Amino acid sequence: MLASRRALLLIVTAILLAPPARAQDGLRPPVGGVISPADAMIFYLARGQEGACGPNCSEWIAAEGIVEWDTFKRLFAFAARLGERKIPVILSVWGESDLKVAMSLGKIIREHGLDVSAGKTVVAGCADATEAACIALKRSGKSLDAAIDTSAVECDTVCVLILAGGVHRTLPADAKIIIGPTHIRDRLAPNVSEEHQKGLQAFYGDQYRLYLKQMGVATDVVGIIEQNSATSRATQISRADWLRLGIVTAPAP
């Protein structure tokens, strides 16, 4: 029993992408309570011109920030409020994120039949606002006037796992998919032993394989994750392999 309880405290994380530059004239408030980091992922509705998020698409769900232990709760509640509406999810993921929760997000997305892509949502109302005011606007529950910036999209391991949940999965033509190393950490202890790390990496590798197979993505991706976790390196997946591996379901537009 003690071992099973402790397993619940272990977090599989990936570190690769730095957060985008943000305004420094206002503090970003915590998301989901005082114990949540300021950069925890948020979800909000955004709208732009016709075709802004794809053919016949002008409204989307912006998902931006770090995937934390409780992020799935916010997506679950957000998706429930959407009802039967089928609005694509546009990802902007950064920082050290929880891979187990990333898979949970992908499952919620698939259950609701949503499409997924990646890009930075640029909200018009945030142009001259402080960071705190911008976050308050995004958390207002309103559909915000915005555009999608796809000029520098990098999709890391966390992004790929969430992307896998999309019924239809696309990425901008000039995007980069970069699979970096992962590690195990314990929320209540500073370190996990190397031996325990190896055992847990193997366990979660099996979980990734099962999830990706269910989502229709080649499990070859897990081999890349495991290799890079062992060598602490990062691998960029070529655009020619995106479709072959099932990471996307259609060629880049």
What do you see in this structure?
This protein is an alpha/beta fold. The protein has one domain (2-244): 2-enoyl-CoA Hydratase, Chain A, domain 1, CATH 3.90.226. It has helices at residues 2-7, 71-82, 99-111, 131-138, 157-163, 194-215, 220-231, 239-244; strands spanning 10-14, 42-47, 59-65, 89-93, 97-98, 116-118, 120-123, 144-149, 154-155, 176-179, 182-186, 235-237. It has a six-stranded mixed sheet, sandwiched between helices. A three-stranded antiparallel sheet has the order 5-1-11. A three-stranded mixed sheet has the order 9-10-12. Helix 2 (71-82) runs parallel beside helix 3 (99-111), helix 3 (99-111) runs parallel beside helix 6 (194-215) and helix 6 (194-215) packs antiparallel against helix 7. The longest helix is centred in the last third of the chain and has 22 residues, at 194-215. The radius of gyration is 18 Å and the shape is globular. It starts with a helix and ends in a 9-residue tail after the last helix. The model is unreliable at 1-10 and 15-26 (pLDDT under 50).
Descriptive labels:
12 strands, disordered N terminus, alpha/beta, 8 helices, 253 residues, globular, 6-stranded mixed β-sheet, 3-stranded antiparallel β-sheet, 2-enoyl-CoA Hydratase, Chain A, domain 1
> The CATH topology is what?
2-enoyl-CoA Hydratase, Chain A, domain 1
How many DSSP H or I helices? Answer: 8
How many domains, as an integer? 1
Number of DSSP E strands? 12
For the record, the CATH architecture stands as Alpha-Beta Complex
What kind of sheet is the major sheet? 6 strands, mixed
Radius of gyration: 18 Å
Query: What is the helix content?
Result: 25-40%
| Cα separation of the termini | 51 Å
Proportion of residues in extended strands: 15-25%
